[in-house]
Amino acid sequence: MNRNLSVLALSGALALGAFAGFELSERSNAQGTGTSPAVTASTTPSTSAARVFDSGRARTESEANTVQVVKDREDGLVYISVTERTQDNPQAQLRKRLQDQFGFGLPDIPGDGGGGVQQGTGSGFFVDSQGDIVTNNHVVEGASEITIRLHGNKQTYKAKVIGRAPDFDLALIRAEGLPREAIKPIPLGDSSQLDVGLKAIAMGAPFGLDFSVSEGIISSLDRTVPVGAKGVEQKVIQTDAAINPGNSGGPLLNSAGQVIGVNTQILTGGSGQSAGVGFAIPVNTVKRLLPQLRAGGVIKTPTLGILFTDLSAVPQDERQKLGLPASGALVQQVYPGSPAAQAGLQGSTQPAAPDQNASTRNGASQIATGGDIITAVDGQPITEGADLSRAVIDKRIGDTLRLTVQRGGQTRDVTVNLQAFTIPNNQQ
Question: How far apart are CA 47 and CA 27, in angstroms?
Fold first, then answer.
C-alpha cells in the first residue's frame, strides 16, 4: 500500500530544445541554383525507419514487447480494497505501524462516530487456477473487510485471508464466488536468473488509479532493506519502474510476462511518491513460502533470542582497544528460555548497554564485552550483523543452526534448535 521510507530525495529537470527549418533552407538554396533538393529523408521515410511504425503508431521492438506483456497479463491483476476498525484491534494497530513505516497512511472515514474506521487500497495477482491471490501482508493486516475487483470489471467480490507471512510482508487471499473463468494466473519466473539492466514492468493501482503500468529496469540485485514485522534486512529487487502508494502487492514482470517480484516499498523525498527507487520481494521468496501460505494461518519465523552488537559497525580504533575482531556478532545478552540459552550461548559479563543502536554508534564505552562472538552461521562468515538475522529468518521452526563462536580465545561450534520466541524489540 502507500509506503513512505523518507530516505532519499531525487529531483530532475527536463530540457526542451527546438529545431529550425533545415529542410526549408535546403529548398531555398536549391531553388536559387535551379536544382532539385538533395535531402529527401525528411519527406520520405527510409526503409529502416518505416519498420518502426505500425498503422501510424511507433512500435519499436521493446514497445511491442511491453504492449504484448501487458495485454497477456492484465487479467491476472487484482485490485484490493480494505476496511478496518483501529480501536481495540491489535492486528489493525500493527498494520498501521507497518503502513507508517512504509509511508502508507489511511484516512479516517467521516461520520463513523469515532469508531476509527479506515479504508485503503492495494494490488495483488493470481498465482494459480484455484484463485489464490498474492499481495503484501501490510495491505491486509488487521482488515475487517476485504473486497477485490478484476481488470475491466466493476463487480466486487468479498475475499478472505488464507495465509500470512508477516516477517516477509506477504499474504495469500482468496475471493468468494469468483467465476473460475475469471481466474487468470500469472506465471512465476525465477529471480535467481535476473541481471541488472533487464526490463521491469510494474502493474497495479497507484493512488487508487485502476490498472496503471510503469516500465523501467532492474537497478540493483544487491540491495537489502528492512522487510516485514521484524524489520529484518532482506534481499530485494531494486527497480526504477515507478512504484507508488497502491502498487503494493502488485506484480513486477519481466519481458517474458513472468512475475519476478512483488512490489513492496519505495524510497521517497518525503512526498509519498516514487523517486525512481522502488523495491520488490523476489519471486523465489514467494515460491518458497507458497506451500505454507496455502496451508493457512500465520507463518512464524524462529528467533534466536539474543541481543548483540554488530562489530562491523564499531569504529576500528574502538575494536582494537577492546581486542575485538573486525566483524561478527558480539552477544550482549541471552534471554532466559530462548533457543540461544538452551544451546548454551553466553552473553556479556558486563551489563548490556541500554540502547543497542547507541552502543554500536558511540564506541567501546557502551559496548559490553566478555560475551560470545558469533563469527559464522552454517559455515558462512558473518560480515555484518544482518547476516545473522537473515540466516535465522530464512530457517523454519524446528530447523537447526550451526554457529561458529569465539569464547575465551577459543573457537567452537554451537548447534541451536530454532523455535518461536518473543523478546523485546524483536531482536534476533
Answer: 23
Residue 413 in grid coordinates: 561450534
Q: Which residues pair with 5 in a beta bridge?
A: 267
* DSSP secondary structure letters along 205-244: -GGG-SSEEEEEEEEEEEEEEEETTTTEEEEEEEE-S---
Q: What is the pLDDT of residues 244-278, one digit of tens each?
A: 778 889 999 999 999 999 999 876 544 444 456 88
321 Rama sector, left if φ>0, alpha if ψ -120 to 50, beta otherwise: alpha
Residue 185, number of CB atoms within 10 A of its CB: 18
Look-up of cell digits 522487510: 227
Beta strands in 22-116 (DSSP E): 53-54, 57-58, 77-85
Cα 382 to Cα 51, 91, 221, 310, 312, distances in angstroms = 54, 34, 20, 10, 9
Does pTM top 0.90 for this prediction? no
| Nearest residue to 309 (alpha-carbon basis) of 254, 247, 385 | 385
Do 333 and 347 form a contact (C-beta atoms < 8 A)? Answer: yes
CB distance 201 to 70 below 8 Å: yes
Question: Which residues, 6 or more positions from 83, have their beta carbon under 8 angstroms from its beta carbon?
Answer: 117, 118, 119, 143, 144, 145
Catalytic residues: 138, 169, 248
**Nearest one of 141, 276, 148, 261 to 203, comparing CA atoms:** 261
CB contact at 8 A, 354 and 197 = no
